[in-house]
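Two proteins follow. First one:
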Amino acid sequence: MRRVKIFSGSSHTSLVDAICERLGTQPAKCELKKFSNGETSVSIETSIRDQDVFIVQSGSDKINDTLMELLIMIAACKGGSAKSITGFFGTPVDNLHAEPLIARWIRNHVSGWKEAVVVSKNPGGSKRVTSLADALKLNFGIITTDRRRATMTGSSILDMSGYLDRMGDATFDVNHLQRSETEAEASIDPTADFEIPKETIRQSPHANGLVNGHPPGTAASCRKVAGSSPFSQARGVDAEPPRRRRTPIPRSAPSDEPVAEEDSADEYTDERAREVITGRLVQGHLVDDDHLSPILSTMSGSVATLPGEIVGPPHFDDQDPMASSFMSHLSTVTSHNTIGGGNAAAEFDDEEEGFKNPELEHTITLVGNVKERTVFIVDDLIDQCGSWIAAAETVVKRGGAKKVYCIATHGLFGYNSLEQMEECECIDFIVVTNTYPISHDRIRASRKLVILDISNLVSEAIRRNHYGESISQLFQHYQD
């Protein structure tokens, strides 16, 4: 192509060579080096005046140097009077994504993919998973992990009190409450009978002989009571009783069959309830239900000596699920001073570190039916492997899946994660693109790794950008 220059950063030169080969050109000449003190030097060795410049720079294990090199290259091209500069790095300017490429590979290389299920290993990836599931017209599922709590310790009680205090600081709209009370009063049928249970009548704070600041029986004391709803009248003993006895109108005629049996039958015939599966994770791996909990084995003696009404029962299986979920939420409430409420990458790192801690136990929940089906676990990248292995073990050992594909756009494979996923018997294939450089030794040693070539997508995006054609058509899903 004329009047186009494609520059390569130092992170992934092989990808740039493949892109230029498809476009019938060569990478533009530039010199990249570092000074003795570690500073980055960029020298553009060709004319780029009034040219469309494209810079391809992927991530690397030295991400700070890679990003700084890209920024310096952009500044150098601006100084060379380039017509336009487009950089491809992590999240490209034209918002390229590999979903159509992955969907096409699934259709052509996975047998029985029409009966498969797309699963997100965390709630944050649900939008990505549903998009791929819609493109393939498949069902989808979701996996969540929560840190498990055995007991309510003294420290957790203090945390809960502080949390409730913060909740108490919230302000309420008094006018909205008054409007709701007026609407509720207007919706009551005055001709119907209504009986106020005696158990709901509580001692009024004005039981000292004064009603609304005035003696009972006076006009001032009855002014507010007469204008209030029956709900407010039932809260105090000094309020006047209703003039008529009212009984609630039954919703439907009573049937001959017991209600308890109907509820029981509905409970066991609900198919949706069968698609929710839970399991226990210790050190990132699924364990049996009778496995000793590390939480109980590491409880301190000071907590064990607290009164029973504070510590609670020794086993968490008898606790209310809502209370356990609330206590788990309290333990993870943190203050974020940054704009946006925190760093998602840091939260994922904390989750991975929690999987490695032998003193912690997690509860993993799978929502979706994967029995005797192929499962596609999808995320944007694979860096650490703890959540991937936990999700694969859950869908296979608890869900009954027959084959698992771990699919991501970027394969970083840090901390020997590729080797650990190779050893996991529940993972059959690991599918990534070549947006991130992977050493040839690791590729040859892997039996499960499948790498999809992204050079065709990037080269076509460069061509369309140069000639002013639509790029959105690259993201359309076409049946092969």
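Second one, unrelated to the first:
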Amino acid sequence: ILQFALTLEHLENAFYKGGLDKISQLDFLTHSYGSEYYKNLQYIAYDEQQHVSLLSGALAAAGAKPVQPCTYSFPYTDAKSFVTLSSVLEGVGTSAYLGAAGLISSKDYLGVAGSILVAEALHTSLQRYSLGLVAPASPYGTGLGANEVYTLAASFITSCPSTNTALPFKAFPGLTAESNTPANPGSSFLFSTKTAPTGTFFVTWVSGLNTVSTAASMSSGKIKTTVPSAAMGQSYAILTNANVTSLTDAAVIAGPAIVEVTPPAPK
């Protein structure tokens, strides 16, 4: 689990280091991200460096060889697309730590993971607010399984050192969100995969404490379904072979795809 956490932290660390090297403060200002935002961004980058250092040290102290950074490809072109991708990555990081909590047997390691989770959630809130999204879009955090997290992370990894410890996880086939976001609950939504599913299939949404499957069908080569009311904020859509309320690897056909869903107004 620590090696997996370090793999994710290396990815985030490389993302921020590369972004701050390539994108000037002026570019952020041009896109209406002020000096205070830029200062906070520098703090986030520093946090990710510290997470890498802490986890590397913990693995070395336990007698393990820490995994080294991979080579990555991040699809941002300017300050706006960088911040948008940052919000997504931080959300995935938060979901990864929350989803892994039950796999950590050491109370000490669990405390460390919880501490990092809080930092990732703070980063997520800042980026969401900066994008004009509802920062606390759901009353509950969304946990995600290790294979689902690995699938999302693998889409940014082009290669890894051959000396890195092999992780006991697998990447599922990709699922691409084709409709515009933010999506509204009750609206139709389209996805695509490299290989069209056959037989009966569903889109299963993981959001907050909810896992909800919606009926899906093929429409002009795309997978069509309806966004459920249970989805709020950054949600994960997974193509499954059954209507499930608890996600298992055996049910997964492809995904996850990340879908931003507008939450209902507070009452």
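SUMMARY FIELD: The CA atoms of residues 201 and 242 lie 6 Å apart. The longest strand covers residues 252-261.
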